[in-house]
Prior knowledge:
Helices cover 60% and strands 6% of the residues. By secondary structure, it is mostly helical.
Amino acid sequence: MNPDKFTHKTNEALAGAHELAMSNGHAQFTPLHLAVTLVSDPSGVFHQAISNAGGESAAQAAERVFNQALKKLPSQSPPPDEIPANAAFERRFQQVYVAEPSVVDTISILRGLKEKYEGHHGVRIQDRALVVAAQLSSRYITGRHLPDKAIDLVDEACANVRVQLDSQPEEIDNLERKRMQLEVELHALEKEKDKASKARLVEVRKELDDLRDKLQPLMMKYRKEKERVDEIRRLKQRREELMIALQEAERRYDLARAADLRYGAIQEVESAIAQLEGTTDENLMLTETVGPEQIAEVVSRWTGIPVTRLGQNEKERLIGLAERLHQRVVGQDQAVAAVAEAVLRSRAGLGRPQQPTGSFLFLGPTGVGKTELAKALAEQLFDDENLLIRIDMSEYMEQHSVARLIGAPPGYVRRHFRPELLNRLDEIVVFDPLSHDQLRKVARLQMKDVASRLAERGVALAVTDSALDYILAESYDPVYGARPIRRWLEKKVVTELSRMLVREEIDENSTVYIDAAPNGTDLLYRVEKNGGLVNAATGQKAEVLIQIPNGPTRSDAAQAVKKMKIEEIEDDEDEMDM
């Protein structure tokens, strides 16, 4: 809007209104805002300021009318939001909708901004990083639009690389923190005299030695790479100085000096930079290059979705995912295989875009491992079984309430409801009832959970197969599957162990033996002070749950446990000597 198109009186009114707005604390009212309002509302206060000027000046008329009007206007910006639109306003302006650019257009925008961000952060951005930024932001980041979210991705990735160049790598920093924690713990344990502290002292010293052995080569590599990065930075700064000198020589027509700089010193510096930057080592701890990996790391932090390239350790985890799930889920080979294969496809990058990793409908009787498989999968993928969203289905008991989860009520889609639901599932997995051998494995896993709680007190737990058979016979319910086992253990075994702890019948560094009574009507508990979990001389730990096969008597069982511990400690000592 050009002020030259207004009459002199209109410009005077606008100027007076703007001065009055400024003096009343409304600095957001620019002459442009006032002019737009004058056009959109000719019968309003601005028109009165001009038409009622009469013998007084336009500024005085504006002051008189605006003094009342400004008291009613909001203080937030922008004020045009408070001005009602009318037909006159719409006729004088054309609405222009700016659509969100496509991924291809976003890549072009990022290429145009590349040089600006390289200069600002002092890093080098690969073209592949720009392509990945546009693709990943479009796929994974919702609620924002291109190119804004892609630009922010590149900006944060550049900032991360810049920060890493100016500080220690994260791997070394974590090891240094761990070393400091162990040293503090070492000094505290040296003042203690009990057996458990002495055993832990041996363990801490061994951990410190291993940590120092791991930290030393990393520090040497970091110092070497730091020298390389500093040299590259010094050479680039020198190149900039030479370029400025070259431009100055060309302005002064000093051709000899310009030729020496262009074909001599500058080429030497650029050759040295190219040689230092041309390293092919993919395991560099420091880099000035922003690549696809750096972009993917930012996306992972923003969304929590693992989109980074698979490392060697994660490849091994994915290949053996089914085996690790079976450590918690007994049986159910088909269900475990279906879930593990879905995760494998997703992490390999071949999963369907805009779709979840997998959609499964778990069917089967209660207590056969459906919930346990979901928890085990959360633990393997996110290192915490609590990172799982569970929905209380008691809120969906009525037929119509299911619409909260799946959309329209069944009556709306009529006979097409069934395929519409089932076609969105990757697989319908049926869980089979558990056999007796599988239930014994479940009981052993549940007993190991109890043993881990005792292990926090330095107490080991030894259980015979006869005791597990008795527990199964007492707790198994074909209707509820394996879930009653946990409740029975809590009610009977954990309660009895708690009584023994309160009565001080269980001491630290001892072992509790659980066996079935000869008549098979109860469990027998016995405590032996045989070192428990930790050997004070070597610092080696035994298993938290010691399994004793059926057959030996209670005294033979104790001897078997002692033999197992001694053999384990001797094996560990042999490995340390090697």
